[in-house]
Amino acid sequence: MIDKLHEKVKSLLEEKQVELVIGWGKGSLPLTATPVFIKDTKDVDQLIFDHTCRNNLTMYLTKDKKSLGKIHDKIAIIVKGCDSRSVVLYAVENQIKRENVVIIGVPCSGIIEKKKISELTNDMEVLSTQIEGDHIIIKGRKEEFKFKLTEILSDSCLQCRYPDAIEYDHFIGEPRGEIDINDEYSVVEKFQEKSSKERWEAVKEEYSKCIRCYACRNVCPSCYCNECFVDGNDPQWIGKTPEVTDSIIFHLIRNLHIAGRCVDCGSCVSACPVDIDLRLMNKKVEKEVKERFNYVAGIDINEKPAMASFCEHEKQDFILD
Amino acid sequence: MIEIKKKQFGDFIKNLMETYRVFAPTKDGKKSSFSEIKKADEIVDVHTTKSAKSVFFPQAEVLFNYSENEIEVPNLEQKPIALWGIHSCDTKGLLSLDKVFKNAHQLPNNKMYEDPYWNKKYAESLIFTLACNEPLTTCFCNWFESGPFDKTGADIFVVDNGESFLLEAISDKGQTFFIQSGFDQEGEHQHAVFSLKKKAESMMEEKQDISSVFETLNEIQEKEFWEEITQKCINCGACTFVCPTCHCFDVSDEGKHQKGKRIRVWDSCMFGIFTEEASGHNPRGLSYQRVQQRIMHKFNYFYDNYEEHLCSGCGRCIRVCPTNLDIREIVKKIIKRKNNV
Ligand code: SF4
Ligand code: SF4
Ligand code: SF4
Ligand code: SF4
């Protein structure tokens, strides 16, 4: 598959169909891919695609007030299922012109969550890994572990319905097809069983760890505002310290801002340096939007986003009860 | 060098707590950071996620409280701090921060301005540097004339040999502590320490000669260099917040009507509004310009002022970066550029 990907990228560059290709390359650490920006056919071999290609690279299309799009007429981007939904989101929200981006879709069989490995190995430093069928062997300095891949794939991937790129110009590899998932909101349901006091305690405990580094926001393709409300200082909307009440406000507002826009790519979860469980609230909001407006982000390039359309018969019990 | 058996360690910490507030590496959710402890068994032996800088330079610190006609500075007269279990990279980080906060700038009367919030805490502290027996593959303190057993900046240097902690007084403060505690400097442990040191050093990756970096950075004029090496950075603050040497802060007022507090809170050169001016103009409006600032500050501006780099090679930024922007690779590219010209 990787050879076909290289060939495709090479021909796109050679034929000058695109000036730049955004994809993943091998990182400097085990289990870590890193974004690469390929302009020259001689660098095409840097591209990889495997269980380590975590980041949703589509955020580079909007990074820095879309500066890449201003420099390059045409950009190609390699996308997994979730990432392709972000491109759809950008098209729907008028952030990109669909025809200016060449989408190279790949089928994804799940991305490894390094945090799960840390937990299972008592924070052992991973020196090397090896995949054997549906298992992975993880070696440290003194110890070695063997896990089923399903034990260490990220939760987003274990509950992913659309592993193949949904929207693409070129598809490389064997599609896996839509997966019938019936537990995609299990975390939310489990959380909702708790009493409101327990829920509040859990939320406080989780967000009290936040150091407000904004890695979650910056890595997120859906967070592309030129000025985020947390950065405003005239007026200042929210306290700048890691005081838990301010951190909760930051997260809850971010959750509302990504309502019907989060594609559950899991990038934010992996990015957080203090391991905050960011997925719970993302899924809660996603579930709410799905149930109320029958809308799932990034699936249909012709459908208006949930938060930008209005129907009379939508449930309005939160306003008029 | 004296020996404290691990069995006696609880008592040692207890005694220490009579004179000091004791800070040490502790669990912090699933991660780890330095915090004040009450008992020895709270201490964990790990490469902490967050650095020790927050002990003296917390992420948010109240400078003063204000009301309509009164300003009240928080009580800075507190029990001194003993900092246990900090690795040499963080100890060196504190030395860098001390340069910044102690002699922040020259006042009109030619005296140096000393930051009162930092200075007292750090000046009175007792630093127990713990030798790093098992460096990680991301550690690169050996690039900076340092190493896992570097004693620079320690008051007391500690080696964990498995059964005991071996303590050596380094500074005058350390000597005084030894005398007050009735410790005898003599003792035969040099051999064990030597072999642990050799072992730790052998675990480190190859050292780089970084002597050309300062000069090369003076010469780089074209923005393409910076654009190219920083393209993947998403400008979060993860790297700078976990870093033991980054020290930029912002000042923020929190309050209502005429009452409130003025707080200094960590800032990051990675953030979009880092140098945004009141007019709205931002000289570092683009992502690469801010990463350039981070690298220039670490390997050029700071070196210009103090003849040392603002990086201790702790590797934390490498471990937390969501895009795997590895600072070692940036430095290597700077070195390579020098060799190519
Ligand atoms: S909120 Fe997190 S999971 Fe959702 S799109 Fe953004 S980065 Fe991906
Ligand atoms: S990445 Fe984690 S620590 Fe950073 S702002 Fe987001 S939740 Fe907070
Ligand atoms: S170098 Fe990495 S951690 Fe630092 S701002 Fe860039 S993306 Fe974030
Ligand atoms: S720049 Fe990175 S390696 Fe250097 S001291 Fe800071 S966190 Fe450690």
How would you explain this protein's 3D organization?
The complex is a heterodimer of chains A (321) and B (341). With 321 residues, chain A is an alpha/beta fold. Chain A has helices spanning 2-14, 63-71, 81-92, 114-120, 149-152, 155-158, 186-192, 196-207, 215-219, 244-257, 267-271, 279-293; strands at 20-26, 33-38, 47-48, 75-79, 101-105, 128-132, 135-139, 144-148, 170-171. Chain A folds into two domains: 2-113 and 153-308, no CATH class; 118-152, no CATH class. In chain A, 33% of the residues lie in helices and 13% in strands. In chain A, the strands form two sheets. In chain A, strands 1, 2, 3, 4, 5 and 9 form a six-stranded mixed sheet that branches. The longest helix of chain A is centred in the last third of the chain and has 15 residues, at 279-293. Chain A is globular, with a radius of gyration of 20 Å. Chain A starts with a helix and ends in a 28-residue tail after the last helix. Chain B has twelve helices and eleven strands. Chain B has helices at 6-19, 53-56, 88-102, 116-123, 172-181, 190-202, 213-219, 223-230, 238-242, 287-306, 316-320, 327-340; strands at residues 2-5, 21-28, 31-36, 60-67, 70-72, 81-86, 126-130, 156-160, 164-169, 249-256, 259-266. In chain B, the strands form two sheets. In chain B, strands 1-9-8-7-6-2-3 form a seven-stranded mixed sheet. Chain B has a four-stranded antiparallel sheet with strand order 5-4-11-10, with no helix packed on it. In chain B, a hairpin with a 3-residue loop joins strand 8 and strand 9. In chain B, helix 7 crosses helix 10 (287-306) and helix 8 (223-230) packs across helix 10. The longest helix of chain B has 20 residues, at 287-306. Chains A and B meet through strand 2, helix 2, helix 4, helix 9 and helix 11 of A and helix 9, strand 10 and helix 11 of B. The complex binds iron/sulfur cluster (4 copies). One iron/sulfur cluster (SF4) is lined by residues 233-236, 238-239, 270, 320-323, 325 of chain B.
